[in-house]
Amino acid sequence: MSSFKAYFKKEITEGIRNYKFLILAIGIILFAILDPIMLKLLPEILKGQTQGVDISQFMNINHRFSITKYMNDIYNIANIVIALTLMGVITDEIKDKNIVIPLTKGLNLEGLVIAKTLVYSLIITSFTFVGFIINYYYSQILFPENLVSISSVMKSCLLYSIYLLFVISLIYLLSSIFKRGIVAALLSILIIFTMPLIINIKILSNYLPFYLIKQANNFNVIFDSTLTISILWTLTYIVIITVITIDRLKRIEIN
Amino acid sequence: MIDVKNLKKSYKDQEVLKDINFKISKGEIYGFLGQNGAGKSTTMNILTGLIKYNSGDITIAGFDMKKEYKKIINIIGYLPENPKFYPYMTGREYLKFICEIKGLDKLETSKKIDKLLELVKLNKASKRKIGGYSRGMRQRLGIAVSLINDPKILFLDEPSSALDPEGRKDVVKIIESLKSLKITIFLSTHILSDVERICDRIGILNEGNIVLEDSLERLKNKYILPVYDIEFSNNCEDLNNNFNKYDWIEKIKTNNKKMSIYVKNRFKADRKLLNIISNIENTVLSYKIRKSKLEEIFLQVVNNNE
Ligand SMILES: Nc1ncnc2c1ncn2[C@@H]1O[C@H](COP(=O)(O)OP(=O)(O)OP(=O)(O)O)[C@@H](O)[C@H]1O
Ligand SMILES: [Mg+2]
Question: I need a surface site. Which of A61, A91, A113, B160 has the fewest CB within 10 A?
């Protein structure tokens, strides 16, 4: 418990002083503001530059379209930012041997991994909610047509957050296996982007964390039994992956 | 306090520790010598539980390494070869962080941190980021960290090796001050002059075995032929014959008014040499026993083994 507390505080200090939280905030929240503005400006830009191209699809951009654009960016860009920011959270401890002194003082590795998971889960979940809320109101101001209700967007946001928690645990697992953080980051990005392909396999689709994203993009999230089971599965994956990560770390000989 | 029996450790095919045996008693300062790559850090990491070993029995303060590691970790302190800290923390913050891991009481913590910062002379720098510390400062912070749980046994891996003479002096002073606290210290190094200053006993590690182990004084008597340096008032180059007949004298070197006598048996030399010299018709200006250097023992032992 004391290791958990010490590392919980330490991760927060590190996140602030090494600008990790700032980078995550930019990676997650920036597009919440930029996307609606871009969508607003795009037709104007295209009007001036292209003659005879059908730009009608950009002309009827509405609230729902704008929010969907942000969700896609969270999936495509925020995922990469998260992977690249978190790739060092575990590998640096080992590579830089920062963990050696704490280990000789009786550091408990469960405490360390759970602290790291919790800090970044809380941070990324809060940023995601802030991003969704900002994006919701910005989109509403710029595209007041076809309004989506805030509650349905919040439900989607919740699913996205749970999905991102899975991404965090995945990055931690891979960085406990590979010595170099960048390998772990690239591999986790690869897994993240191949999941939408695997989901086409019917039997698996409901059991993959990506199912949450698929549902979130529908704007009409109903927490029926299929979705609940899928959420439970994702949470189970997170727990299993974290247990394996701790076990991996215990086996590594650091000297 | 430390009892190691038949310790073996290999990395893949490389047998680093072949059969290590030693005992260290309470309050002793043990110097662990060996060339680069001899396995000093490996031994230290094993004794502090950081890495596993292939076989052998290790008992520290009566606790078995395999079964009672948790108890051992509470009574030892370790300064690794290259202590690494979180560079964005200040020295004080880092000490506090380690106290938190140990679960120490908050009030107790801040008093203890003040005391340790004082001991390693980092009070002024304690609010600066460790990233900006010099090598010597980091080494001293490492010593403070290793002392945080009031250890009975301290493991110091080359505490002074990477430092400039000034930094080395500081570190050696700190270690000397620990001696009075009755802490048992296991110290590895390849800087022999530091060992001569602080260690009670030394062990030399070579090719996976401890090839020599004894108190510093006895080692010097055993391994180094004492040399007597004598200065005469007149040229002494023709005096050799006065000494050649004694079998306890190994050889004689002369250079104008100076003479160096290498002896095989110090006991006899101490009793007889002055007598012989007093019978020579050449006034003696000075008479000195050259202090033997640990370095010479070290090279002699390591070379003999090769
Ligand atoms: N993790 C490891 N994997 C493989 N070989 C290793 C590992 N650590 C050390 N060795 C090897 O074990 C031997 C002993 O290394 P060790 O670091 O213990 O030596 P040392 O006496 O501390 O040397 P130095 O004076 O350079 O600090 C070396 O030959 C080294 O190459
Ligand atoms: Mg070493």
Answer: A61
